């Protein structure tokens, strides 16, 4: 098993960043790596319950991931399960993701993503690339919204 942690800083206040990482209308604006298009989705991390998304890549590639929102601490953190589906729509190994936000003392926000229980280092490296690209989209979206 492998874990992955990614940290980012935002100029926006924590409540705003928490909205960006938990509410459906914001998640749909940045979810998925650059160059990947978000298709069907049920992205709402503001309440416990199921979630899912299908992303489309070049050449007709389809990437489906689903899970369950396990806990929400409003304004602070959200934890959800994560599992990719294969070509036959069979759900694979499950891991767990936590998004956390905290004020930086200067009106900005420190954001931490912890993805726990990935199958191996290769999986962690692949997820690192995907999350890093997705968070670049989130940073651009946050700048645009804070603008």
Automatic annotation (TrEMBL):
It holds the Pfam family AHSA1. Residues 114-133 are annotated as: Disordered. Residues 11-142 form the Activator of Hsp90 ATPase homologue 1/2-like C-terminal domain. Belongs to the AHA1 family. This is Uncharacterized conserved protein YndB, AHSA1/START domain. It comes from Parasphingorhabdus marina DSM 22363. The lineage of its organism: Bacteria, Pseudomonadati, Pseudomonadota, Alphaproteobacteria, Sphingomonadales.
């Amino acid at each position: 098993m492998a874990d992955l942690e990614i940290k980012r800083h935002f100029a926006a206040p924590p409540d705003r960043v928490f909205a960006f990482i938990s509410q459906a209308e914001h998640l749909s604006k940045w979810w998925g790596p650059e160059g990947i298009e978000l298709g069907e989705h049920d992205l709402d991390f503001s309440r416990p319950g199921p979630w899912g998304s299908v992303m489309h890549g070049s050449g007709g590639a389809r990437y489906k991931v689903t899970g369950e929102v396990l806990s929400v601490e409003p304004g602070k953190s959200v934890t959800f399960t994560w599992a990719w589906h294969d070509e036959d729509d069979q759900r694979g190994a499950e891991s767990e993701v936590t998004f956390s936000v905290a004020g930086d003392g200067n009106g900005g926000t420190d954001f931490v993503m912890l993805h726990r229980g990935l199958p191996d280092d290769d999986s962690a490296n692949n997820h690192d690339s995907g999350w890093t690209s997705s968070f670049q989209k989130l940073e651009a979206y946050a700048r645009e919204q804070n603008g």
